[in-house]
Amino acid sequence: MIHRRIPAPLTLLLCAALAACNAGQPTAGAQAGAEADPGPPGPTAHAELLVGNKSAASLWRLDLADGRRTGEAATGQGPHEIAVAPDGRSAVVADYGSGTEAGNTLTVIDLGGGAARTIPLGDHRRPHGLRFLPGGQRLVATTEGSEALVVVDLAAGAVERAIDIGPGKGHMVALSADGATAYVSKVESGHVVRVDLAAVMAAEDDAARAAAVREAPAGAGAEGIGVAPDGTVWVSNREDGTVTVHDPDSLEVLDTLDSPGFPIRLVFTPDGRHALVTNARAATLSVFDAASRAPVASVPLEPEGVELHDTMLGRAALPIGAIAEPAGGRVFVAVSGADRIAVIDTATWTVSEYWETGREPDALGIVVP
Description:
The chain is mainly β. Helices cover 10% and strands 48% of the residues. It is built from 4 helices and 30 strands.
């Protein structure tokens, strides 16, 4: 996630609701960097790409200019997602776990060089999707093991509220522009869930809390999710090979787009012009015009001459995480089975180079000083 500031009035609105509840309750440079010991993370003096390496239980910091590794931090097992704080001073990593060992922690990394810390989630296991709430003091995380969306108070280092979202493997989460509504994709049931955060945090009984949570069908294997500039909710359905576009209130399907090859992640460019969908089995990036919903490009992502390793889809390139730089011009995709970042030129929608990573890169974040 790219860190960005939330307008003050919107921040105050959601924070007021939460407070009320509380009162009631490989380039040459990249290759050279990979071989050197970068030492502990230091202050962010330049723009960086954060990379979560799932099999290495680590987060790498790459110089956004040339892919050099400038720092590394340990995480819990299976770092699956990264959320960068709005002020850019810290990053939170979801420690999903590996194999049959379910994780139940978040790792908070001080990007200014301080010590990392761990937030225990207790019975809320398999944390995955992460998003900071307005103000940057709290975040929401999906926890597959407890079928919940948890609100975590970062200063207290604890779960403040667990919101029951029901069975179906809630996986990824996205927020409305004002941060007042969360949307969760459910991989197993193929549904999308809408959570009115202010209402559920202020609710005094189970009935009121349940009324603030609604869900509707999306498509088989619903996984990637993002909110478009017009407020519509886009979901990539990996088993169907589609992207469904939903009304943000009713969750009605307004449009269905083709994105063949196991579409697994969906993000929008910071300027809101394009939707980016990684297709894990096809090893491509689908690019859509966010306004017209028309396809723009399909970018091949498998690097030539690189030995691939085994992934959840067999020996494959397996592109997963994607993110665009704030200034525009480039998109970065984690090619998990190749231990590479594909750097894509948005002027031509082609891969310009690959940067080396740790083992099995997945989650990405961008920090701009």
